[in-house]
Specification:
The chain is an alpha+beta fold. It contains 2 helices and 12 strands.
Length: 237
Amino acid sequence: MDHRLMTSSNAELGSDEVIKIGAMEIWVEKETQIPESNVLITVSNLEGEHSYLVAGDKIVKTKSSLFVQAPEERIVVGTRSWYRKATVLSRWFGYVLAFALISFSILSFEGAIKARVVLTGSMVPTINPGDIILTTPASTVTPKIGSIVAYVGRRFDGTAVGVFSHRIIGGNAQTGFIVKGDHNPAPDTQHPKIPDITGVVIFVIPLIGKFLTPKSLLVLIPLVFGLWLIVDALKNE
């Protein structure tokens, strides 16, 4: 095909055609030695795709997908550009999440870290209901005044009633620590000692625990599946 393409901002083109795409103009010179030949012109950028079919002395705006299929790596326009960026971000997010979960599983199996969902508001605003606390054994991090510890609450007869996560405000390991919830008006009656302390809080993950309930999972699982279907549909467009 003898059609020549060049950019032009101002020119007297006579019978030639000027295709304006955004701030750019494409000059299509209507000269050919093969009358029946056609040419497809496609310009793509982040704003989208612009395609024109030059057939003889006619120039028709069209879509390149009607005539050719571009390699996947060349399709980076419009929503596809957004999709590619989202795919890269989601892939890296998946890698980071997988690494974090594997690391946590290994540390949890070895007893170095434990996770627990907080159910009460005794430590508000430091720790809220639905937060997840990560604890490490007292043998790894020594409990001290100011530390938040998870300890086994017991009745006067020594029967365990549950695990509480409160802050140490006094006492010591020998006579027992004085613990109190930040939101509670008074310290706890029990003064836990080292054998009662299951772990020292080292990190708090906000809100995640609220989505680990059976009702939340019933909503989240179909939602994640639906998002996966949408992404897969966009990929196949």
